[in-house]
Input
Amino acid sequence: MEYKKTTYKKKETTPKAQYKPKRGKLAPLMTEDQKKEAGIHELSYDFACRITRLYQYLTEDAEYKEFVQSKQIYRSGTSVGANVRESKHAQSEADFLSKMSIAYKEADETYYWLNLLRDNGYLNDDQFQSLSHDCDRILKILTSIVKTMKEKIGTR
Output
């Protein structure tokens, strides 16, 4: 039995830039009025989206590409929303408190990275103010949640 050799044409590929969806600025997905009415779940998701776009900006679009600090802020900034999301399915009040406490710590770490990026010239003052304002809002809400839960379940 003889096999017929098949030749394949190389598939034409589209450059990445043509099919990559256009990203917006570092602007929030929600307006300021929407944020005033939103809960921690919506705020942390909006913040994670902004941090994702910040990471893309720092590693792809910025004049000076930055990879180390951008990866750190990406991890901590998106972890806030992930832990808040996990808290929805907490197995106990103590588990809920643990998830929210971790989210608080991650938000606080994200604030640190925002300051470091600004102070090293990777973020201008407007970018920093906008992102740090959202981070501060999340920190205040998480502080309130953690404090209330600690009082409720009787931990220090």
User: Anything to note?
Assistant: Residues 13-20 have pLDDT under 50 and may be disordered. The radius of gyration is 21 Å.
